[in-house]
User: What shape does this take?
Amino acid sequence: MHDLAERELTSADNASVLVQEQILALLTALPDWELNCVEGIHRIERVYPFADFASALAFANRIGALAEEQDHHPALLLEWGRVTTSWWSHSLGGVHINDLIMAARTERLFQSGESR
Assistant: This one.
């Protein structure tokens, strides 16, 4: 996970999505994440548990700040006691290396525990 989190995001211009085998290989560094397919589009997702709504909201806000900083945005579902985070590249219609980098950075935010 550390290696992915430290990588720089690449330009998505003229980029292509990763194939399922590539995504699964990279997800070994992010064991709590899974590959899902929604409406024919691959995305990587993780549900983060929290003790209450306020903690979940604080974490969602931290993800939002990270996304704004990098100009790469996830889908977030905020519920009482949990935040479901989904990364995929909308413009490419699938998972790009940037999504895995951002997932690793999201994981690092969670592990730092500042919002729990």
Notes: Strands lie at 34-38, 41-49, 75-79, 82-87.
